[in-house]
């Protein structure tokens, strides 16, 4: 990803150099100095954008590592053993759940299932992204449909995987592909979707890696002039009017806009796509927790979920201990109940894997 991004910025730098060379011919040292200063500032702006992109890439890698670990934890989870939830009651954990990431499962993000019940998973529609494939408990599925159905006999994590839609779009301009001699040829396009290994409509050859090579031309009405260009909302303005230039090696979704003098720009800074929901493990020993209207002894909940933890004992003083330490509680009096069945409860927000044990104090 970093190398691809650097190639994009390299292509844009070529754009600046070409535009400066054929559209701006300084007549004296002062105009040359101004042009060099302008291009130096542009390079600094591009470097700042590259730094921001690297930061986003690092954050994405962290998210991917967390998601991978969650899937590994799910696959390696042992079969639940009977769990004592009160002094007098023992229950066997045999509940099956389905969780959806980038999709819904039976109309929700998480559902409780009967053994062998059918799961219907529907991929989300995310602006700017294209559905790629399914993963079920970390196993890649050779299914291209955005809806799948299957039966589950164990807790299951269903993930819809997407990739960014690669589209080149022009506003107040159009572009033409380059032929084998690097000249603009063929029809003009306002918008073109290009995925990896797309076919160049001029050369009719497959472009390995999905690289775009083209000339872009401003559409300027009579008696008007180009004020500046926007490429992915980054402004490029030159001392003299520039109405066309060549870009080679583009492999990212890009919007190019021509802004005429006295005209407001049409594009705006795109909003970031929300990151997929992260899930954490929750385990209760000698207690239980309530999430989404049901009581559980173990399972997974989305990050930031608020759960109610409850334990019952014949003591009037009790402790909740576990990990992380923020889950720890000490109560000197119960919240409800009667002699022999005192109930202790509290609410807790889950932001990491949580393991809690409940015990009463013997007087």
Which geometry do the CA atoms define? Answer: elongated
**Relative strand content:** 35-45%
Going across the biggest sheet, name each strand in turn: 5-3-10-7-8
Q: Overall mean pLDDT score?
A: 78
Distance between the termini: 62 Å
Helix content: 10-25%
Helix-strand makeup class: alpha+beta
Number of strands: 30
Number of helices, counting only DSSP H or I runs of 4 residues or more: 2
The main pleated sheet reads as: 5 strands, mixed
As residue ranges, the low-confidence spans are 1-28, 77-94
What is the CA-atom radius of gyration, in angstroms?
29 Å
Question: What is the element layout, followed by pairings?
Answer:
Layout: H1 2-23, H2 29-76, E1 83-84, E2 90-91, E3 96-101, E4 103-105, E5 110-113, E6 118-123, E7 129-136, E8 139-141, E9 147-151, E10 156-164, E11 167-171, E12 173-177, E13 191-193, E14 198-199, E15 206-207, E16 212-218, E17 226-231, E18 234-236, E19 244-250, E20 254-260, E21 279-285, E22 288-291, E23 294-296, E24 298-302, E25 305-313, E26 318-323, E27 329-331, E28 336-338, E29 341-350, E30 354-360
Parallel strand pairs: 3-10, 11-20, 21-30
Antiparallel strand pairs: 1-2, 3-5, 4-6, 6-9, 7-8, 7-10, 11-13, 12-16, 14-15, 16-19, 17-18, 17-20, 21-24, 22-23, 22-25, 25-29, 26-27, 26-30, 28-29
